[in-house]
Structure formats: C-alpha cells, structure tokens
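tool_call: predict_structure(chain=1)
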Amino acid sequence: MDTNFSHIFLPKHSIASEEEITEMLSKFKITKENLPLILSEDPVAKQLGVKIGDVIRIQRGEKDIYYRIVVD
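tool_result:
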C-alpha cells in the first residue's frame, strides 16, 4: 500500500515486503533493530495502516531508498 498524500515534498512511502527486507538486511549486514525508527502514530504510518515491527520503504527520487522500522 502506498501513501495517498498529495504534498509535493512528501516522498513515496510503502510497506516493504518480507523479501525486500531480507535482501536489504543481508546486503547491509544489519538486523531490523539497527534500522532508524518511525512511530506508529506518525501520520504516514497511520495512513499506511502499519503495525509495530513493519518496515516502511521511503523512496526519495529515483534511486534513493530509505527504510524505517515501526515502533510504539
């Protein structure tokens, strides 16, 4: 599910698939606990309908991709 916000400065947010998460964690040799945090009460997180422990994929531009783990 992608965000449906229309603000031009808000990058595209989506919930990362398990396959994508596994690949990313392996590539960077990290665990989910090493990811930056995003609160479950964040407006974008609410819009996506995430649950604690989900990983949000943030795409800024064509190649810049960032990940955040949802916490309480």
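agent: The chain has a mean pLDDT of 91. Proceeding to next step.
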